[in-house]
Amino acid sequence: MSQEKVLPASNRLILQEKTLEPVASTVSSGTDQLGKPQQAERNTARRVAVRRTGQSVAGLAVLVMAWALGSHWLQAGVPLAGLLGPAPTFESLYQLLAGNELTLHAMMSLKRVVVGLSLALFLGVPVGLAVGLSRPLESATSSAFQFLRMISPLSWMPIAVMVFGIGDAPIYFLLTFAAVWPIILNTAAGVRQLNPQWLMLARSLSATRSEVLRRIIVPGILGHILTGVRLAIGIIWIVLVPCEMLGVSSGLGYFILDTRDRLAYSELMAVIVLIGALGFLLDTLAQKLYQQWTHSRA
What we know:
83% of the residues lie in helices and 0% in strands. By secondary structure, the chain is mainly alpha-helical.
């Protein structure tokens, strides 16, 4: 009976290491090959981001140059137009921010945006769900909603003041009325685009209405709701400034009237620049929220 030759323990370890070396090198090579495309994609995305940032900065520079030329051209006929140029505007903006004179007004404006948007979501999402789930209700409300949507929110200002009085209440009404329509329409569109097989599967599994709403409908239409929110923020921010001229004593719209009465035109332009900057930040925030949701779904 032949006997197998038994190697010493040290020799067996050396043999195992030599056997595993090609496997380890193959795995490492495969990992490197997988990492190279990802690194290339990251580099490409970084270059695209840098190029877009440069283009944005160039566009803003052209805008500031056109602003400076326009104010200089107006100054020949209107001497006070010199106060509307970029240099006095940015100087006044720095002084107002350093002196903390705009903080209260900016915070009050942002508070009104949040309240108006919250009320629009509270009203618009349930109505949009109902319209999207019911064809008869959609047919009954489509013409009425389109009619009301085409009425400028600012045209309701006298009625809002007559009904709600002076203060924040008419502003909240006008902002909500302006913002609710994109939320209703986008929510209803999201419901109509849901895959019917999802709803049929939920019914076959005896899911309750609340479960279907929480687990299928709301996750499925969240992207449309976020799109409606972004549109609503843009509309609210545009309507806010004239609404804050309705007898309130705070807010960026009120501060514009105050600078006009004091003939402080450089401060007036500074507030206009701040309104544009805050609106840009709000829109960017809404866009980032939508992109974050899109990446989480991918």
